[in-house]
Amino acid sequence: MRTRFILIQTSHAGNVGAAARAMKTMGFDDLVLVAPRWPNVLRREETIQRASGALDVLENARIVATLDEALDGMSHLCATAMTPRDFGPPAASPRAHFEMLLKKEHLALDGQALETQNASNLDAAAAQSGVAFLFGSERFGMANEDVYRCHVALSIPTNPRFGSLNLGAAIQVIAYEWRQALGGFAVQDATPARVQADAAQVAGMLAHWEQALTGIGFLDPAAPKKLMPRLNQLFNRAQLSPEEIHILRGVAKAMLETAQAKR
Fold it and tell me: How far apart are CA 49 and CA 148, in angstroms?
């Protein structure tokens, strides 16, 4: 499903940059601004600074004069309105609504598959589906007439005593929830994949430790019992890396050198 973020009458340039950054981190790039305060908002220094590298989203963004232009091609409209209204679309949390929306979409596509059995027709049907997230101005939020056009009023669950969200933060939350509903991204490892020492490296280290433990008098070579097999099991459970093997062999070397110096 195509995804579009629409900012209506945005008054702060920095929020446009923050919106671009929030969108890019979640893999979205369709941004439309409706009658922003600054006609050159996409090129303003504050916008670029707050985008923090999401310049491609800004370059692809469009500025239009009316909401009708911004909604072109979109089939499902989501207002983001925290203020309760006496009349309008039903309110829902993003997570619950997205789950329901995708379930309906899958059922619709399955129904078309039974009718057509034609992959190209299914692709065309999916391409016609478009979800738009509408955000009002920072000062006044969304106008009632804009909310009334939408299918749902998304309400981010917040502290009941303080529900004030910055525009950029609200966009980040919606973008994250929508991305998670669509499948999300894999978590990236913060460190390189761990390499485990092979059996020969472990055996060499254990032989070195046996010499060192004998040298300091901890191990009696005439009656070793099960000390070395137990150490072998201990180090196997630890799943040592080659670097850790190197450290342990350094410890064994130091023990041997200390024992020899005392003789």
Answer: 34
